[in-house]
Amino acid sequence: MILDKEYRILVVDDAKDTQMLLEFDLSAAGYQISCCDGGEDALVSLGTQEIDLILLDMYMPGLSGLETLAKIKAQVISAEIPVIMLSASTDEDEVVAALELGAGDYVTKPYVTKVLLARMRTAIRLMEKTAQLEYLAKTDFLTGINNRGSFFELSNHAISLASRAGQSLVVAMFDIDFFKQVNDNYGHDAGDQVLRVFSQGMTEVFRGYDIIGRVGGEEFAVCLPNTNRKNANIACERFRYYMEQLSVGIITNNNNNNNNNNKRNINITVSIGLVLAPKGPLTIDELLKQADRALYYAKEHGRNQVVDDRIVATIDERDKTVASPINTDDIDKNNHFQENIIMANYDGIDFDIGISNVLGDEALFKEILVMFYQDHHLDGDKLQRAIKQQDFDSVKHLAHTLKGVACSVGAMDLFEVTKALDIAVNYDKKEDFDSLFSQLSSQINRVMKGIELALDVS
């Protein structure tokens, strides 16, 4: 049996001689044994000690074996423990009833020791394999923290609990600053090391019951239950400072070194956006979108900072308040206003975001749009070809690059769908590629057509 520990077996049988025989045989095989005379005692024992497998007699006074089995499987603490039924009866209906209630196997008395031990080993291996698969299904393979699906599931549950209890809850998004440069300058192995160190820092800085997860390539998130806005800011700022002070040791290729590698230290920073969950029904997906808006603001205004979504919302409201309506007579008299109107109507591009990225320089923004068109108007064809040829490195490179430049020019719908494709590549979700590409193709055609109509891109 390929196991690293002594497993504890709970024997539930009203016959003392059977208990003694099982204890002798199983102890000789290396198991630790606990015995109970009936179902009621077994249920108590399951609440006070860790049990790895249960051997349960079919016929007992008080609670029968089937009744005890039903109660075992109904309790959260014992539902996943494998159960092997023991009985002198070979009644097929009883066997079927036990298996339908959740028993893993059925052994007749008098048992053959070798057969019983073999079936126990099979049950334990199945339990181990099931636990391993559940862990892999919920865990990010690189960092060991919750993957996107597990983070969403746990966070939605926490949001529901907070709503019912009337408690505050905060969600924060994290993005490693200039992470692409780490991959480009030092290689993807170094990037992976940075991601592992980053996630380890999250587990050390945040509370044990805070829900942390990797939700994208270099994007992470934390759900902080029973936390107000002030304390969440303090926690996120503590993590930001922790990462700023940390030096990450990485191995880089070095052709001049006999060992063909060279160790060096690099420093990284993180941008963080957070949002306080409002009262009323809301999903983690909706909260992440709000936190992502604050994160985007943090990255566009210097990086390495924590930004509260309330600040972004306040700025938006202020801009709406101070913005004066444009008089059409003034537009006819003033070419500057006319240019603003034309540029603001680029299909698929948020003019305010794009122009703010170049500090209001409209001429520069126009040049950038022309270069964006020239460099990327064929990206749709390139992506389609790479997906068809299953060249996933090219898909990753094209999606990651297009995501960054789309955000820079304010093509936010294109940014979102390209980001989704980038995430799908990271998690090897090939079944999503065609659907996401269809959305991406529509958006890139929309943006490029808008630029063609407004600018000379020949």
Provide a descriptive summary of the structure in words.
- The chain is α/β, with parallel strands linked by helices and 458 residues long.
- Helices cover 57% and strands 14% of the residues.
- The protein contains 19 helices and twelve strands.
- Helix 2 packs parallel to helix 3, helix 10 (284-300) crosses helix 11 (309-322) and helix 16 packs antiparallel against helix 19.
- The N and C termini lie far apart (71 Å).
Largest sheet geometry = 5 strands, parallel
Termini distance? 71 Å
Stretches with pLDDT under 50, minimum 5 residues: 326-344
Which range does the strand content fall in?
Answer: 5-15%
Oligomer: single chain
Q: Based on DSSP secondary structure assignment, what is the total number of beta strands?
A: 12
- Per CATH, which architecture of the largest domain? 2-Layer Sandwich
Q: Which fold name fills CATH's third level, the topology of the largest domain?
A: Alpha-Beta Plaits
Count of helical regions: 19
Strand order, largest beta sheet: 2-1-3-4-5
Q: What is the mean predicted local confidence, pLDDT?
A: 85
Radius of gyration: 30 Å
Helix content: 55-70%
Please report the first level of CATH classification, the CATH class of the largest domain. Answer: Alpha Beta
Q: How many separate domains make up the residues?
A: 3
